[in-house]
Amino acid sequence: MEPGEGTVFFTGGMLEILDAALPVAEESVAGFYKMSTSGWGRLRYDVKTAKDLFDHEHADHAYAQVLRYVGIPWQRSTQASAFTAYRICLQDGSILRCLRENRQISEMAFLVYILVHELVHVVRFSRHLQLFEASAEVRMQEEKKVQEITDSIASEIMIAGMDVVRSFFYHNKGSGLDSF
User: Fold this and answer.
1) FRET pair for 154, CA 20 to 30 Å: which of 24, 87, 107, 147?
2) In terms of DSSP H, where are the helices of 127-154?
3) What's the CA gap between 101 and 49, in Å, rounded?
């Protein structure tokens, strides 16, 4: 896990905000998709910040990206026992740069919005509503659809600053959320 030279990491304050933002995003996405606690628990994903990413998981062009991994339980080596897991790779530097350039944006609302977007991808991939492997054209269509869903979910989240964040992504056409 060798981050690139000059890589910026979240520090204590942002990590605390991330810890608060993740359950808000999870509950909001689960509610939108009407997923029970057990249904949500079956999704295989984790969320990592820049300090915990492998080189290939860094993406300077985005605030986050979702990567897919296929695993085989260690005690079994058959293809039938393989499972798919997703990793949401937060790009600390891109997020912090945007927040520094747009001081009116709430850190909490921004992280919630980004996490909602990435979790919508995870749900759609997990439910086979969208294939992970897709052409550039299909990816662009999927990003547009996920952005619309994200904005719909975010419109129901009552936290300070969410309207500013929604407006930011609307005016920037979801820029920075191209994530798979």
Assistant:
1) 87
2) 136-154
3) 20
| Tokens found for residue 117 | 């977007």
Q: Which residue has the tokens 């260690």?
A: 74
Calpha distance 97→115 (Å, rounded): 17
Q: Name the nearest CA neighbour of 179 among 127, 122, 96.
A: 122
CA dihedral 58, 59, 64, 66 (to 10 degrees): -80
Q: Which pTM does this prediction carry?
A: 0.90
Domain ranges of the chain: 12-170
**129-180: per-residue pLDDT in tens?**
887 888 889 888 999 999 999 999 999 999 999 999 999 999 887 666 655 5
